[in-house]
Amino acid sequence: MKKIAIAGFGFMGRMHYGCWGRMRGAKVAAICDSNLAQLKKSSGGNIAGADFSTDFGDARIFDSFDGMLAAGGFDIVDITLPTPLHPAMAEKALAAGYHVLCEKPMALDAKSCDRMLAAASKAKGRFMVAQCLRFWPCYVCLKDLVGKGTYGKVVAADFSRLANAPGWNDGGKSWFLDESKSGGVQLDLHIHDADMINWLFGLPDAVTTLAHRHATGGWTDHAHTLYEYSDKVVTSTVSWAPVGEFGFESGFRVMFERATAVGSTRPSETFTIYPSKGKPFSPRLGKGTGYENEIRWFLSYVNGTAKDGPLTPLDARNSVALVDAERKSARSGRRIHVKGTMPEK
Ligand SMILES: NC(=O)c1ccc[n+]([C@@H]2O[C@H](COP(=O)([O-])OP(=O)(O)OC[C@H]3O[C@@H](n4cnc5c(N)ncnc54)[C@H](O)[C@@H]3O)[C@@H](O)[C@H]2O)c1
């Protein structure tokens, strides 16, 4: 039985708590949050239908990360804290000998990720960044189609992710709206698609990003990026600009030589393949959510039954570095070279 300590019990802490509760051979033994009122609050995240249990069983509750770490009594530290805290907390937990699962984005920039890589390389515990799309059934299926070349090569691909700005209706108080804390929409939300592009196609030669800054908020809230590859055109859109009861929407359109694959979360999660010959169809997908699947995989990695997963800490670091390049492009209005500027293996 592996015992889990969850650090940060806001939206993602609750999500992970629910997932750990469904894992065989794992038990949440400790939870910490500097704001204990969070343990009673219902969450305001953007993922519909999330199951937020508030029965903490016999888990011990702490109001400080250091206090929880000092008390011990667990094997895995699951970091679901605000992004600026990821490096320091992951480093402390790794240095104390724990296995660490850390929410995305790994850190605010590649330089901070490098500190985490160094800590992980010295640690006896395992380390993984929770880039959940690499475990989400429709994206796993897409990766399989690209890898196997089932419909030939990819000619073009477009990825999108749009949501109301976090807490847009509470007067802009959310830490997510402070770009120095969340990295803005380009890091916080778009890291999912940047990581997917990195996973499917490798790092691009260069990126060019056009971004719009919100008139009142001062954060970059809408961005389009062009990723240069010699043999295909790849683009993305990310936005916290939607207002009203928009909610959340993400998707992709991938044009292969002999089929087009379309994924969308609106009105509900669908994945359709339009082959060049024959009728459109929905491929059979794996079960579970990306959150459950990543947590299940990490547990088997810690237990030694899984070895090569879909994501290494260096992959997660390079996806942050890709976003660094996109943010640099958005700020400077220049095309930023990417390929060859960082080790990929
Ligand atoms: N994978 C995904 O789809 C996904 C979705 C949402 C958020 N996230 C990521 O998860 C992380 C957390 O986001 P969230 O939405 O849960 O944020 P949140 O604000 O809802 O929760 C963060 C919690 O951490 C607590 N906290 C802050 N400082 C602390 C400290 N020093 N010690 C202990 N507790 C502290 C806060 O009180 C809060 O309860 C972020 O990095 C975010 O980018 C990932």
**N-to-C SSE string, H for helix and E for strand:** EHEEHEHEHEHEHHHEEEEEEHHE
- How many domains? The number is 2
Examine the coordinates and then state which fold CATH places here, giving the name of the CATH topology of the largest domain. Answer: Dihydrodipicolinate Reductase, domain 2
In this structure, how is the largest beta sheet organized? Answer: 8 strands, mixed
The number of distinct β-strands equals 14
User: Termini separation (Å)?
Assistant: 33 Å
* SSE class: alpha/beta
Shape: globular
Count, helices: 10
What small-molecule ligands were found? nicotinamide-adenine-dinucleotide
Strand content: 15-25%
CATH homologous superfamily classification of the largest domain: Dihydrodipicolinate Reductase, domain 2
| Strand order within the widest beta sheet | 13-12-11-7-10-9-8-14
| CATH architecture call of the largest domain | 2-Layer Sandwich
Average pLDDT confidence is: 92
Radius of gyration: 20 Å
Q: pLDDT under 50 segments (min length 5)?
A: 45-53
Q: What is the helix fraction of residues, given as a range?
A: 25-40%
Name the CATH class of the largest domain. Answer: Alpha Beta
Blueprint of the fold:
Blueprint: E1 2-7, H1 11-21, E2 26-32, E3 60-62, H2 65-71, E4 76-79, H3 86-95, E5 99-103, H4 110-122, E6 127-130, H5 137-148, E7 154-163, H6 179-182, H7 184-188, H8 191-201, E8 206-213, E9 220-228, E10 233-239, E11 248-256, E12 259-264, E13 270-275, H9 290-303, H10 313-332, E14 336-337
Parallel strand pairs: 1-2, 1-4, 2-3, 4-5, 5-6, 7-10
Antiparallel strand pairs: 7-11, 8-9, 8-14, 9-10, 11-12, 12-13
The structure holds nicotinamide-adenine-dinucleotide (NAD).
Residues 8-13, 32-35, 38, 45, 65, 80-83, 85, 103-104, 130, 132, 188 line the site of nicotinamide-adenine-dinucleotide (NAD).
